Amino acid sequence: MKSELSPIPYPTNKAEEYKWGFDVYQPEGTPMAWIVDWTSAGAGYGVSFQRTMEVLRFKVGVDLSQISVDEMAAALSMRLKLQWHGFWKTLEDKFGVAKAVEVGREMSHPNGRTVWKRIQNNFGTPVPLDKIIWYQDVTHLLSGPTMRAYSWCDERKSVCTRVECAMRPPKGMEECARYCRVCDDATIEGYMAVEPDLLCVRVPDLGDRAEEPRCVHMWTYDKKVVETLPDVLKERMPETTRGVLTGKGVRL
Q1: Neighbours of 182 (CB within 10 A)
Q2: CA separation, residue 19 to residues 73, 113, 134, 163, 187 (Å)
Q3: Which of 8, 110, 132, 184 has minimal Cβ neighbours within 10 Å of its Cβ?
């Protein structure tokens, strides 16, 4: 991670537009980013999925000194991903979907408030747009190689696009996607609870069964940025987030 922002070429090709979410939230001027290349962002990001699973399945030989730091980081990140989804699947099986969703909200809203207060302590309030994506890059980096989130800002908004994400359920556990959605929604609503002028939306997202390929977050202090979003995006906002936004004077 660098000590200063870098410009992202724009306009660019379709693949890059999709990766950064430019096709959903068009940059105004030159978009800027902290981490541009996630393949070399930190320990473990260069380890293949196949090798990561070999380490998790103990296919490493007898000499444990042969396991590299990168492999340990990649395996730990993947293990946390699998445990996270295992937790929600167990909770749902034991107590039902409604109770699991309730737990997700009750856990995540206070977490969002706490995290945002920490960012305010570091950078003041309102938190600058470039520091919002700094926080996004740091928090995703600390989650390890199962997280690769392309975050950028311009002068009116911050955007984070996730295709590879620890909270995206693995194959066979697609129904756990609803808990990613619930936790993310409650978290951003927690952000808005402690930053008076902050507006957050999370559309498009992965859907209740991970049927969609990516999740895109957007932060702004400008009501017009939210109010001028296409209707198709507004319609996909969860009711809880819509309620917070309209309570802040946003016309949806």
Answers
A1: 22
A2: 24, 28, 18, 8, 23
A3: 110
- Region 21-35: mean pLDDT is 95
**Count H helices, E strands: the chain?**
9, 6
Q: Are 22 and 160 in contact (CB under 8 A)?
A: no
Percent of all residues in the chain with a pLDDT value above 70, rounded to a whole number: 99
Looking at the DSSP assignment, which residues form a beta bridge with residue 157?
220
Phi, psi of 238 (to 5 degrees): -65, 150
Tokens of 155: 């002068």
For residue 41, name the pLDDT band (cuts at 50, 70, 90).
confident
Global confidence as pTM = 0.92
In 3D space, the residue among 53, 44, 38 whose CA is nearest the CA of residue 72 turns out to be 44
Cα dihedral 55, 206, 248, 136 sign: positive
